[in-house]
Amino acid sequence: MKDSSVFPVVGFLLVLLMPSKIKDYQREILPPTIHRLMKGYNKYLRPFFDNGPVTVGMSLDIASIDTISEINMDYTATIFLRQRWTDERLVFEGNKSLSLDGRLVELLWVPDTFIVDSKKSFLHDITVENRLIRIFPNGTVLYALRITTTVACNMDLTKYPMDKQTCTLQLESWGYNINDVMFYWTRGNESVSGLDTLQLAQYTVEDHYTSVSEAVYETGRYPRLVFHFELKRSILYFILETYVPSSLLVVLSWVSFWISLSSVPARICIGVTTVLTMTTLMMGARTSLPNANCFIKAIDVYLGICFSFIFGALIEYAVAHFCTLTHPDAHMLMYGHHLHDMDDEMNGIITTISSHPHRAKRRKEAAVTSPPAPTTTELTVRPPSPSGSEPKSETTPPEPTHWCLTALAMLRKILRVIYCCHVENPHQIDNYSRVTFPLSFVIVNLLYWTYYLYF
Description:
By secondary structure, the chain is of the alpha+beta class. Among the domains are: 30-234, Acetylcholine Binding Protein, Chain: A (Distorted Sandwich), CATH 2.70.170.10; 237-329 and 445-454, Methane Monooxygenase Hydroxylase, Chain G, domain 1 (Up-down Bundle), CATH 1.20.58. It is 45% helix and 23% strand. It contains 13 helices and 12 strands. Strands 1, 2, 3, 5, 6, 7, 9 and 10 form an 8-stranded mixed beta sheet that branches. A 4-stranded antiparallel beta sheet has the order 4-8-12-11, with no helix packed on it. The longest helix has 29 residues, at 298-326. The chain is elongated and about 110 Å long. It starts with a helix and ends with a helix. Residues 1-19, 333-341 and 366-394 have low confidence and may be disordered.
């Protein structure tokens, strides 16, 4: 009884310790055609082992591009990778191909293809591993896989969000060099399909093409297939999300130009509120982008322009208010100008009426006091002889020859320029700002959009 109970256990251990026996058992349950093909087949040797390299044709079907991340600079795509090659050891008679279970791929030689810039990849296995093996009578093998991969893509974000990105998907042999394996696209640029019907959230696929190259490493030269595709970002979302609000904040800051200088709380409230709102908008626009100092993006330039105009509107009020402090009666210039003219006219009329009766009397007194006039003329004529040369020298000074005189002359010119910039009426600052701020903002916008859209 003890010996009979030991035999099943020993048999089970022998099965576990002898994988070659399992393979023989798998071959025994294969159909006769496959069994004949597998007889004497060595999957560790590539086809045409002694007769040159084996050529592997590839094609792609892009099922979806799930995410494109500017922060990580990569994209995630689900692809159907199809590979074709000819194995002379698998030639059989007939006119129909054989479709095998994907798990039988372990019995065949397959290319060691890998995705060069892949960060993370996996093969779908629901409900079974998504593999396809098909053998044709002439020995051609079709091997298809369904893969989801995250691939690195170097992006240039200097024109974000008006940028175009060119990403690649590179397929390469890991261990076989160009003397063993050669890769080629089965149908050229048409070897990749699925992009025409692809729908992306922020991008549109503008162009795609394929190329064949070689990867040179220290261990040798390896075949490489490259699929290039160009992505153009949709700017409509950013116009509604960032550009329009920032432009409206700039326009809102101009409202303070139509508010009186005496309304300090109102103008300060508008200025500070717009500055803080613009700062919040700038911080929100940068959260979804990489914090790299090398990237000065187009959206950062526009937000900086808008912030400068909003901050300039706040500084404009500070300057205007400071000018009112240096001119205590400046707030009466705009409203009291007409009253001052009326007062001058009334004073002129009153003085004219009051001085009319005394004109005759003044004429008589002037006639009586006319003889001493020569004495006054003498007083006015005598001094010019000694002192007349002094004012003459002041009005027409000799040309300065010393550097001190040259410095004084330059200082006088600078003071004249500063005096010319002196603001007589602080209210005119708002009048000028109502025109210069909108006009300069329009000009800057024209230059901005022209540069980033056409250059």
